[in-house]
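G.,

No rush on this.
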Amino acid sequence: FIKEITLEKFRNIKTGLNADRLFIDFSTQKNPVCIISGPNGVGKTSLLSYLTPFATLGNLDVRESNKLILENEKGYKKIVLVDDERNLYEIEHFYTPSDDTFTIKSYFKVNGEELNANGNVSSFKELVAEYLDLEIGYLKLIRMGDNVQNLIKSKATERKTFMGKILDSVDYYLKKHKEISQKERDTKLIITHIVD
């Protein structure tokens, strides 16, 4: 689950909330469901888009991704996640202005150990896939709306590639489930023979 998020110099947060910095501590929640409410234009959809480990939205949002950070400002994003085994993931992105866009350095800590010391975005994405089993393309499954490049709006070849990745994962889990189920049946059979 998401423990906390910090956003600094994000354009839509400045526009919606007139804030240069937003910090939300989700760890104080007593319920598993969190409701984000507010009037139109305050940045609810933007905040939901930023609740991912990634530095940008990739090609998910049709709005210009170069405008993510306030012009000529250094941006910062930190998101802290905790998994079922209580591993703590601290993810930080640093945005530095560069011409009409920005450069990004992305860092990935697991239980306090930095695994991406050079800040390289490609190796960062590999770590997210390895440790969190998440790729930026998967976000197309959970977002809908006019400003979102979701799976339905993708080209046929993009949909095939995407579904192929997902089906490979499903095949792996089905195979493991079959193996575990067989071991469970074997164990029950052994226990039954011992008891008899």
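When you get to it, here's the other one too:
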Amino acid sequence: MITLHHLENSRSHRILWLLEELELKYEIIEYKRNKLTMLAPKELKDIHPLGKSPVITDQGKTIAESGAIIEYLIEEYDKSKKLKPQEVDGSLQYRYWLHYAEGSLMMPLMMTLLFAKIEASPMPFIVKPIVKGLSKTVSASFITPQRNLHLGFLNNHLSSHKWFCGNDFSAADIQLSFPIESASHFKGFAKDFPALIDFLKRIKERPAYQKAQEVGGELKSFI
């Protein structure tokens, strides 16, 4: 049986959701974040050397990384091919979005988180204005424009497509859900990216998404 090593409020929500979409039997082992650092607990290193989530174990194999897990589960268990486009153009789009989510989109989002933490961190009074000024300059000149470039790109695509690979829901939508949900907490998101808001409404209406939240807890952003 598939075992999902599930860290609360993390990327592993996507894998739990996919398991529900595929109607697979699985067991879940839950892990809690450190309340001070928000990092994963050291017990996850017993499963995979990097100590990150998601990780699944199945048929004697240990598989990490969201994209790799999704590809494995689709290839191994999506026998009806309902969550991966089969035509050439759709298949190329699917592969692109599946890897774009972590390869390109998450970087500016994580940099937003990092620089926000820097600004909020305690520091000597004398250096505080210097650090904050530098952080705000980098954010305004690079991080925020890059973040909005990607979100605008996604918003424009979904303005003319129901789902990322066209009219049919796919695992690429699951992969992109985490960064989009995280970004939805940014100020002005609803006004600037209405197609992404509509996307989030659609995914949250799916029974498998709702079941994943019941089992694994509500997904909240700390970005």
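Residues 88-120 form the longest helix (33 residues). The mean pLDDT is 91.

Enjoy the weekend,
O.
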